């Protein structure tokens, strides 16, 4: 006997109003500011913000950061806000 699957019900203990928004629409860092950028887990290197622009695919600001790689060449890559912090 074929039966229809029951529609998913929202969990009563999770209220969508209390879920924090992760979207960042305005940059928290300025162009030209020195920041730390996370390349891998526990690996942070100093860099400089070259550009900050809103990306609709990710729904947040992406930072273009220039940093010096381990082999000595300068690289420009884009990073999410979670991978950028104040340079200490």
UniProtKB/TrEMBL annotation:
Residue segments, region Disordered: 1-24
Protein name: Tudor domain-containing protein
Species of provenance: Ganoderma sinense ZZ0214-1
